[in-house]
Specification:
- The complex is a heterodimer.
- By secondary structure, chain A is α/β, with parallel strands linked by helices.
- Chain A has 2 domains: about 220 residues, P-loop containing nucleotide triphosphate hydrolases (Rossmann fold), CATH 3.40.50.300; about 80 residues, Alpha-Beta Plaits, CATH 3.30.70.
- Chain A has 11 helices and 13 strands.
- In chain A, about 45% of the residues are buried.
- By secondary structure, chain B is an all-alpha fold.
- In chain B, strand 1 and strand 2 form a beta hairpin.
- In chain B, about 70% of the residues lie in helices and about 0% in strands.
- Classes of the chains: A alpha/beta, B mainly alpha.
- Chains A and B meet through strand 5 and helix 3 of A and helix 1, helix 2, helix 3, helix 9 and helix 10 of B.
- Bound molecules: adenosine-5'-triphosphate and magnesium ion.
- Adenosine-5'-triphosphate (ATP) binds next to strand 2 and helix 1 of chain A.
Chain lengths: ~325, ~290
């Protein structure tokens, strides 16, 4: 007997636009209370997936359940306890920010209108509340979107690139807010094409590329999987670089300031150290580093990996790591 | 499996929310209309002709008074003004006003992206559709009655509340005349709400406000052209444009109900399939516009 259905459960989601498979067999599981990152480059299918979750567009195949309810079949009932927006949140330009929120409160079934001031204050829009929403700056509109979502008192918050167009302070506030919401037990599904945005706040991520999930799991696991990256500092870095270039199994060699960086297997790195010693280049440091998440992200989403470097990720939750 | 999930386990009981009534959604649709300039443009379009007419007539009353059936009756009773105005506006202006808002009501939210905003609250698509359709119709009715009220007030203020001559040259008392004017405006609403239904359909399907407004009024224009084609007289009774004049049956004694009942079912044949198709499209379509 299922007592609490998970906030998000999607199986085999497909969305086809003519010849384009915008979303291609995506499975998602978001558990209660977690902050889940949905990462991918432009056009990967993030927004399309979120639209299907919210019942805004019809999946070509597959099904969605939010807390066990299908938004396509059950309509608004399936969105009970769910709030959020896809792409930039949109409001009625001829109504004030406050009026817009009052309408949202009414369309939520009323009863929450007293919270309008509260959420306006929360996103720092109290002073602009009487202004026409059409006269809001992009960032203000984004914040009004957050306010409108929180007005629903959601248990699941679906946010599509919420930090887009926010200034640095706004981005920081957004992060703080999401963390706070998570602490209060709200489940957050957050899409982003910026790893940095997700890195600090997400418990787990799905990385999508061309409509497919290429990785799902904790970011830490993704990082741990990379391993074989080295920092090298020697008595003669230029010479060392020449030697490394000539050596076999040394990849992605870069001169980074006073040191070199490269990727290699342990054995190849060892061979390089011998070659350096042989050439009279003293090794001050040769240390394995963790590849930056950014690198891994690019590798997964742009497919720069030539096949020999599959992230051998131990994905315990779902066996989803492919190329 | 899904039965277990929808059998409302305790945790979901707390999640169950209140949902707004369709009346609430309608109220906000009307509030949105009230806050938009376009709304007043349409209302003014209906209200200005009677004002211009009355002012013009008052200034030009004299030897070169225009001829026509109403020429003498206009100054005999203020109640002739709303009848003449209805005759004039019902042909094209009122359908245009009905199209103006109905063609816009779904499409504009599509292009503004606000449709996704309201559809992620606690309202079903059917509710939004019903509220929008009803709002477009309330608007058409407001425009019609607003124009009629202004024509009546301006007419009566200029020429008095006297008995009035009907289209079949009989005389009806002033109160009876007023009643007939109200009834005529009610009946002219039937084809106008039909135009609005077509507007809602085009608004839903084209997702483009201008295209829908032009399309709805285009349907009216095309039907007028069809009326002008010789040899097609037999289909005239089934053209929507003919129904726009059915109210004139009221202005005869005895009241000619035939065109009115005929108009009612002909209009239903246009309006109901339009609304049904629009509904089906609206509840199933992708809302991805931005
Ligand atoms: N309504 C539509 N009609 C046709 N193609 C579409 C439509 N919506 C999205 N697509 C296509 O689907 C693909 C995925 O788009 P989507 O908006 O989901 O990407 P995204 O991951 O959200 O990207 P971004 O980071 O730029 O927001 C893109 O190639 C896009 O062109
Ligand atoms: Mg997107």
């Amino acid at each position: 007997m299922v007592l609490t259905a998970p906030p998000v459960k999607a199986r085999g989601l497909v969305k086809r636009y003519k010849d384009l498979l915008a979303v291609d067999q995506i499975d998602l599981n978001v558990n209660a209370g977690e902050v889940y990152g949905f990462l991918g480059p432009n056009g990967a299918g993030k927004t399309t997936t979120l639209r299907m979750l919210l019942g805004l567009i019809m999946p070509t195949a597959g099904r969605v359940e939010l807390f066990g309810r299908d938004p396509i079949r059950e309509g608004a009932r399936a969105l009970d306890g769910v709030a959020g927006f896809v792409e930039a949140p949109r409001f009625y330009p001829y109504l004030s920010g406050r009026k817009n929120l009052q309408m949202m409160a009414a369309l939520d079934g009323g009863g929450r209108s007293e919270r309008v001031d509260e959420v306006l204050a929360l996103v720092d829009l109290t002073d602009a509340a009487e202004k026409r929403a059409g006269a809001y700056s992009h960032g203000m509109g984004q914040r009004l979107g957050i306010a409108a979502a929180l007005l629903r008192g959601p248990e699941l918050l679906i946010l599509d690139e919420p930090a887009t167009g926010l200034d640095p302070a706004g981005i920081r506030d957004m992060r703080v807010l999401i963390r706070r919401l998570a602490r209060e037990g709200i489940t957050v599904l957050l899409s982003s094409h910026q790893l940095a945005e997700v890195q600090e706040i997400c418990d787990r991520v799905a990385i999508v590329r061309s409509g497919k999930v290429v990785y799902e799991g904790p970011l830490a696991d993704l990082r741990g999987a990379s391993g074989q990256s080295y920092r090298l500092h020697t008595s003669d870095d230029l010479h060392a670089a020449d030697i490394a270039r000539a050596a076999t199994g040394i990849h992605r060699l870069v001169v980074a300031g006073p040191e070199l960086r490269f990727q290699a297997s342990e054995a190849d790195a060892g061979a390089l150290s011998l070659a350096l010693g042989h050439a009279g280049v003293a090794i001050y440091t040769m240390a394995p580093t963790l590849a930056s998440l950014e690198d891994l992200f690019f590798e997964l989403t742009e497919g720069t990996a030539t096949g020999n470097r599959q992230p051998a990720v131990d994905v315990t939750s779902t066996p989803k790591a492919t190329q | 499996m899904s039965h277990a999930a929808t059998a409302a386990p305790p945790a979901q009981g707390t999640r169950r929310r209140r949902h707004p009534s369709t009346l609430t959604v309608l109220r906000w649709e009307l509030r949105k209309l009230i806050s938009q300039k376009r709304t007043y443009l349409g209302l003014a379009l209906g209200a200005i002709p009677p004002l211009i007419f009355v002012v013009f007539w008052n200034f030009h009353e004299g030897p070169d008074r225009h001829g026509g059936i109403f020429a003498t009756e206009i100054t005999q009773s203020g109640l002739a003004t709303p009848v003449l105005m209805l005759l004039f506006e019902s042909a094209f202006l009122l359908p245009l006003i009905a199209a103006l808002v109905s063609g816009d009501i779904v499409a504009t939210e599509d292009s503004n992206g606000t449709l996704k905003t309201i559809l992620t609250r606690s309202v079903d698509r059917g509710q939004v559709f019903a509220a929008k359709t009803f709002a477009a119709m309330v608007y058409a009715a407001t425009a019609v009655f607003g124009a009629a009220a202004i024509a009546t007030i301006a007419g009566v203020a200029s020429w008095g509340f006297h008995h009035v001559v009907t289209l079949s040259d009989t005389v009806v008392s002033a109160p009876e005349g007023l009643l007939l004017i109200v009834a005529a405006n009610v009946f002219v609403l039937i084809p106008l709400l039909t135009v609005a239904s077509i507007g809602v359909l085009l608004s839903t399907v084209t997702r483009n406000s201008a295209a829908a407004v032009v399309g709805a009024i285009g349907v009216v224009i095309v039907l007028y052209i069809v009326t002008a084609i010789p040899g097609l007289e037999s289909i005239h009774p089934y053209l929507l444009t003919e129904q726009l004049q059915a109210w004139q049956g009221l202005m005869r004694t005895p009241t000619d109900w035939a065109p009115i009942t005929h108009s009612a079912w002909v209009c239903a044949l246009y309006a109901l399939p339009s609304l049904f198709a629009a509904y089906l499209v609206f509840v199933r379509r992708d809302v991805a516009g931005d």
